[in-house]
Every structure is written in structure tokens, then in C-alpha cells.
Amino acid sequence: MTTGVPLAFRYLKRETLVATEATRHVEWLRDCLEPHFCAQAAHSGDWRVAFSADPDGYRALASQRRAPGDEIPFFTLDSRLVALPRWNDSGTGDTVAFDAEFDVFYTVRRERREVDVLATDLRPWGRVALLRVVRELAMEEAVTAGGVFLHAAAFERDGIAYAIAGPKNAGKTTLLIHALTSGGTRFVANDRVLLVPSAHGHKVRGMPTLVNVRAGTRAFFARHFDPHGFGPDSGCLTHAEREAERHCTVARRDEAMILNPRQFAESLGTLASTGGRLGAILFPVISAAHEGIEIAELPRAAARDHLASALFPSVSRSHSQSAFGGRPPGESFERNWLSELAAERIPMLRCSLGRNAYERNATSVLDALREHAHV
User: Fold this and answer.
1) Does pTM top 0.85 for this prediction?
2) Which domains does the chain have, with CATH numbers?
3) CA-to-CA distance for 211 and 190, rounded, in angstroms?
């Protein structure tokens, strides 16, 4: 396998070395992961991940397919664990699995802490498979070290971070964009945040994901997105690649866009932040009974239920190790964590998004927060 000079991506204490056949793949990965991950040239790391194209090697792996039914947990997404079919027996100590979504094979060598991501060709969307591996390795280390991930977006202002937690279609991304365009705020995360206990409360760190801007959200904030001419594949392209295809295949107004974190922040005219001290957790609710944005403190029991439902899926709930060997703390740890966070009196706020919530003359979420949290 021929690979370029490897680059190490560090998140907390875990350093993952990435080697690919073309520097543009690593450039795109940096657009997605920085500043949450620190990148630097290196020749060693805790794990090594190689991303390559080899049609002959791909066909050789494909020919080894065994009987279906044996699946291995690989990745945690916002609402589910992604389990992939095992493609070989375990006699060699390696785990080989096939990912039909990106048309790649993963070969995981746990003892050597190596992962090969193999494709027939390195089409741009295949880079997402590489992103998922690097991100999952970082998430497993962070959870094992005592952190907890929420299904949440987040923004930061003056060192204080605010999480926006909730299920799909709760309005997290739209509320996040509103907060980021209200002035003085920085982008932390769109879909998942890490909460880490510290001597001064909990700290918020972002875990990067691609940003799905739904059609309605895009149309409402068109003044920010339209000038960039984003196309349906922009999210998987580097800055140079996107400039080359700029305005050639612009996404229609009635369809969603997928952007990488750098594109998302730049289109909104804001900077990225690694996080800050947790100031409050907002739970958005779309409500026709309200005007604008209204924020109210949740009763403790309701706040705990909302928080529990916002916990990110973990391998521990599948009662088996992940493909990478991770076995995070179990549900008892999560229950204790919920109690500890409640004891800290972090504001848990219901954020009702009523009619005209995002009109330019409406009260901003920052103004509504002033009565309940330091902003």
C-alpha cells in the first residue's frame, strides 16, 4: 500500500495517525476536524488509519464473503449504532467488514491498533468513511475516560458554552444558526458534544460531524448560504476542489445541503470554538402556541428525563465490544452522571420556538437566555 506522509490527529489524549494516497483527503479531514482535533505531521500514534484505493485488493476481500448474520458494532450515529457484516472468520485476529453505504472495506487489527479503509477508487464521498473511523476512535477514548456525549449542537460566547439538545427534527440546527448569526458567538458543534467533568463544573467540547442543513432552514437563512453557491456534493470537497466546481452544480432551494464544519462556520461569518464551561442546556420545542422565542426552567424531574433522552448512543448499550475494542462504562455510569449534573444546578431550559421565532426583529435566543444563564 502506497501512502503519503501521515498526519496525526489528536483529541484529548488519543492520537490517530492518518495516511492516504493523496493529500487532498487529509486536507478535507482537517476542514472537518480542526480545531477540535490538533493536527501535525508525525510517524507514530495510538492508532494508525490508512485510506487507499486498490481494485485488486478490494475484489480479493469481496470474494471472502461468509454467510450473513454476523454483524459487528462499528459507529455511533445520532439515533443508532451502525453494525456492519463481518467479512471473514476471526482466525487471523483481524476484523474485516463491508460498508455498503460508502462501498469500502474496513480491516481492523486491534493488537497492532491499525485500521485499513479500502475502496476501488477514492471518490469524494468515500472520505466520510475515513472521518467516521477517526471520530469513533476519539469518541471511544473520551467515553472510557469518563466523558459523556449528548446528541446536541452547541455555541460558545465569552468562554461559556450552551448546548442545544434533542432528537432529530427538534430544531437544533435552525436554533444554532440563529444563535450564531445573533452576534458574538462561535460555533462549537452541530450534532454531538462531549461533556467532561472538571473542578469548575462540566466542560463542553465539540465532536465534528457533517452538517445537514434542511431545505426549510436553508431557505430561511438564504442570505448566508446562497452567496456561496453550495452544491449537493460540497460537503465532501476541499476548499480548492469546491472553488473548481463553484456555481457549476448549485443545490436547489428546495433540497437540503450537507456542509463540512468549516464551510458551515464560514458561510455564517463566524469562527469555530473548541468549547468552554457549560452554561446551560436548551431543549428546543417547536410550538404554535408561542410568539418568538420563550425560555423557561424545566422542573428537575422533567429536566432529567430530557437529558437522559439526549444521551448519545453508546456501544455499552449493545452489550458487546465495538470493532475497535472499545467497551465504554455501562448504564449505571450514565445514571450516576445524570444525578451529578443535576446536583450542579446547571440551567436546564425549555426553549419554545413559536411563530416568527427567527424574524430579524424578534427577540434573539441570547436575549431570552439572559434571565436564566450568564451570556
Assistant:
1) yes
2) 7-143 (no CATH), 147-210+260-369 (3.40.50)
3) 6
